[in-house]
């Protein structure tokens, strides 16, 4: 017995908003947040070498290997670790550049800053000129580092590397992050140093679906002396980084 062929179309679920493909794509594009690009300047003059005053609010070159689309809206987080200042600049990607060996050029993007970012730029320029400006400091600025951390867990001591550190905590680069809320004892040690900084910490968050993978540790201070030791530890990191920059600058000038 032959049955007629019927094409069955699934009915939309109640309450589900169905948009045309192009409309849905534009909708999600509008609702998505600006991607953030981190740019660190260990010397204020580094910012000037990456900035061009052309085109409205100016153009800032940001080193990055991330895949970004032209005209994509981004937020550049400009950090000055040595001074402890941080700024947020918004703009759009105007050009992309692949890295090369000869001549040595880093990969990155040119970001055309929005005209309303001028007040923030003026503060940065005034700081570079040595003027006293009332900056808004981050409560826990992170300093980029590459130091070893050891923390005690159920199976004993685990050794990993810290990617950045601040007065509030550290980011630990690891493929095996601990569960959020875990409390651990950790030891931080500078290269060439015999004494380690011992602090308890709590896992504040973890990242397993992005690069780099790892977890954020929030320090737990039981005594005021622990905060003083951490401040001295970070000051020593800044001193070493400043000396390394001075040595590299003197070699270039020869």
Number of helical segments with 4 or more residues: 4
The gross shape turns out to be globular
Q: Could you state the order of secondary-structure elements as H and E?
A: HEHEEEEEHEEEEEEH
Low-confidence stretches: 1-32, 135-139
Count of separate structural domains:
2
Average residue pLDDT: 76
Structural class: alpha+beta
CATH topology category name of the largest domain? Thrombin, subunit H
CATH H level of the largest domain: which superfamily? predicted glycosyltransferase like domains
Q: What is the highest CATH level, the class of the largest domain?
A: Mainly Beta
**How many DSSP-defined strands?**
12
The helical percent reads 10-25%
CATH architecture designation of the largest domain: Beta Barrel
Question: How far is the first residue's CA from the last residue's CA?
Answer: 94 Å
Major beta sheet, strand line-up: 1-4-5-6-3-2
**Share in β-strands:** 35-45%
Radius of gyration: 24 Å
How is this structure best described in words?
This protein has 254 residues and is an alpha+beta fold. It folds into two domains: 21-128, predicted glycosyltransferase like domains (Thrombin, subunit H, Beta Barrel); 143-253, predicted glycosyltransferase like domains (Thrombin, subunit H, Beta Barrel). It contains four helices and twelve strands; from the N terminus they run αβαβββββαββββββα. The strands form two sheets. Strands 1-4-5-6-3-2 form a six-stranded mixed beta sheet. Strand 4 and strand 5 form a beta hairpin. The chain is globular and about 55 Å long. The model is unreliable at 1-32 and 135-139 (pLDDT under 50).
